[in-house]
Amino acid sequence: MAYILGLIGSIVWILYMLDRMGINLGGLNPFHWRRRRAWAKKYGGDPIYAVEDPMEVAALFVVGAAKLDGDISAEQKAAILAQFSESFSLNERDAKQLLGSSSHLLASPQMIPNQLENLIKRHQKMFSADQVESLTAMMSATLTSTVSADQQQLIDIVRKQLPEPRSDGGTWG
């Protein structure tokens, strides 16, 4: 019995000294590790993938299509704001905020196709057929008279990868 108490005392003393030296064995706890990993995955990734509202996802596609060829022109910005106001039934202030947040979430034009393709894969079942048609119409309406090959390819990808008609129909509001 004395040997067991001596062994337990030695283990406690070793743990105490390790703690004083800065070595924390709490990281070996699988529950703590899982919680830390989930937090890092949620807040350490690209914030564009945290968007869950279909209207905000659609806004990302519209702004992304416009930003593929570089910065958004004043003409494109006005067209995007008009589309947001008309299609999403937003007032001018809310449409500007949606445009600003979408522009901020999208990275440089070189990364936009990759971001939007990953976003399509994550949200394939979120849109109804009416919303897909509305989305592609908004994307086409906000582009200038000359649509680049990249912009047309993005519109085609949206048409192909987003869903067939669902039973619940859908509007944006």
What does this structure look like?
Helix 3 (54-67) runs antiparallel to helix 4 and helix 4 (74-88) crosses helix 5 (92-105). This protein has eight helices and no strands. It has helices at 2-20, 30-44, 54-67, 74-88, 92-105, 112-122, 129-142, 149-161. The radius of gyration is 25 Å and the shape is elongated. With 173 residues, the chain is an all-alpha fold.
The whole-angstrom Rg is: 25 Å
Biggest β-sheet description: none
Q: How much helix, percentage-wise, in residues?
A: 55-70%
| Morphology call | elongated
Low-confidence stretches: none
Number of DSSP helical runs: 8
Order of helices and strands: HHHHHHHH
How many strands in all?
Answer: 0
Beta-strand content estimate: under 5%
State the separation between the terminal residues, measured CA to CA: 73 Å
**Overall residue-averaged pLDDT value:** 86
Which structural class best describes the helix and strand composition?
A: mainly alpha
Quick gist of this model?
This protein has 173 residues and is an all-alpha fold.
Could you list some keywords that capture this structure?
elongated; mainly alpha; 173 residues; 66% helix
Q: What is the topology?
A:
Blueprint: H1 2-20, H2 30-44, H3 54-67, H4 74-88, H5 92-105, H6 112-122, H7 129-142, H8 149-161
